[in-house]
Structures are given as C-alpha cells and as structure tokens.
C-alpha cells in the first residue's frame, strides 16, 4: 500500500569514492605510519547519543478514532514514546473518523507551528492536501501507515509491510502443511476489506508464498475488520467446508469473532494463523489451541514515528546509519509469532 522513493545519491557516492581513492593513494606513497581511519563520508557524526536531551521540539499528532484495537494502540504507542523524552512536547488533537474534522484538526496544528507532525490519515487521498499544506509551511510530516499519494506531502513514511505480512503467513502455513504431510490442502483465507490495496497486498503475498510449496488458496472471503463480521464469515466458511487444513485470518481484531465461530462449531482439525499481533491472539497461541501463529503489523510503528519526528525536528540522523538524515521511508518487517517466541512479543501486544 505504499510507494517508496529515494533521492539520487550519485554525486555523494562519487565524492565518497574520490575521498576513498585519495586516502588509499596517500597510504601507499606517504612515509607516515598507517592510521586506521575511514573516509569521513563513511563515518557519520551521529554516534549513539540520539536519546540524550537536545533541542526542545513540539510534535503534533493526529489519528482516527480508536474504534478498533489496533488504532487504539497506535495512539497509546505514540503517547508512551513521547513521554520518554524531556525535550518533546506531545500535542495530540482529538481523534476522529470524520475526514473534515481531521483536516480541521491538522490545520490547527499547522497554525500552532508545531516542529513536526505525525499523521495517520483516515484516508491518504483525502488528507493529502492538508499534509502538503503542513510541508509547505515548513513542518515535516511523518506519514504513518496510510500513505499520501503525493510524495511532496510527507517527509518520511513509516509503516508495516502488507505484502510481507502475507508472505510470512504463507510460509508458516506452507511449512506446517509440509510437516504434517498434507498433499492437497484445503486452505481458507479471511480477509479484511477486499477492495483495499492493503488487503490485496496481503492476499498476494500469501498466494505467492504458498505457490513455493505447491499450494493454493481454496476459498477466501472478507470480514470488514469487525468482530461481528469475522464471526459470520467464519461460520459460513466452516459450514461450506467440512474439512479444512489451514486458515489465515488477516486481522486479529476480527479474529476474536473468527475464533468464537471455530470454538462454537467445535472444529479442531486445522490450524489457524492470525494477523497484526494482538495480545489476545498471543494468549490463544500460548494456550496451544487452534491458533498457532500470528504475523505482525505492529502499532509500535506509531512510537517509532514519534522518535523519527523528534530526530527530524532536531536535524539529526539515525545513529546506526551512516547517512546524516532520517530515511524517506521505513518499512517494518512482518514477524511471525509462535508458541516458541510468544513471551518475547507479549509486551508489544495490543488488546482487541
């Protein structure tokens, strides 16, 4: 669901090569003892001190209303990270699912002249213009998750990997089916909202990974990201397929309804994989039930966005990178949580 672009670094790389070549020539022809030094272009000057207090900055924040466990966790993660820094003033606006209200809220942050703005839009297309207005006013926008179509509307995008999420689920499913010796599996997929690019990316990643094992999805249906629809869709699929070998549910919030339907039907012949990394899904995995894994699309990205906003506002780069500025886009890996590693991930889980 995202587009990535990076400015050309041809001149920087050429200049770095010239510096390196000059350094090599001096080492070969000079009479001075050799020194273990690297060209300045390869070292950077960030060190490891980015967490130390620096210039005081105000970070604005806007997100949709918390009517979904994942969205609620977005705001909580942002608030928690902001509290870690004595040099950050966190300025959130009222969360809303109304496009016009979110536009007005962002305009109020522009008027307040915040130093940076973390923005998870209800709709990237419809919030694109106000995000561009912030950028034009000199306020760097950290675009969270739902990408703006105009790259001039954000300084940095940060979010999860929807295609990678499907790939992770597909590899877990394929490996488990191979381990069980299943040769012609019935694989069921419960999507979020089928028309969304993010859902299509997840489904494509899942299908592509399954193909490497010689498997295909037998049936799929979308459940609108709600508990109620998840329950209804799962019930229908369970009735339509008397035997299932594997089920992938895209979203752990709607998965509450999916699991309820499975338990009500008393079905235990298959394993299930979830999506997003909720705390209740992790508890189910730990209990050893039908849910064996979930693949992450973690709301911790909001906490990372606050940290990135702080660095950009303070004109810092990322300490572990050579480059002097924060990257233009950051895509988080989708990790697979199983019974073997669930305790490590539990602190990052969100309540559905």
Automatic annotation (TrEMBL):
<dbReference type="Pfam" id="PF13407">
    <property type="entry name" value="Peripla_BP_4"/>
</dbReference>
<feature type="region of interest" description="Disordered">
    <location>
        <begin position="30"/>
        <end position="56"/>
    </location>
</feature>
<comment type="similarity">
    <text>Belongs to the bacterial solute-binding protein 2 family.</text>
</comment>
<dbReference type="InterPro" id="IPR028082">
    <property type="entry name" value="Peripla_BP_I"/>
</dbReference>
<dbReference type="InterPro" id="IPR025997">
    <property type="entry name" value="SBP_2_dom"/>
</dbReference>
<dbReference type="InterPro" id="IPR006311">
    <property type="entry name" value="TAT_signal"/>
</dbReference>
<protein>
    <submittedName>
        <fullName>Substrate-binding domain-containing protein</fullName>
    </submittedName>
</protein>
<feature type="signal peptide">
    <location>
        <begin position="1"/>
        <end position="26"/>
    </location>
</feature>
<keyword id="KW-0732">Signal</keyword>
<feature type="domain" description="Periplasmic binding protein">
    <location>
        <begin position="59"/>
        <end position="316"/>
    </location>
</feature>
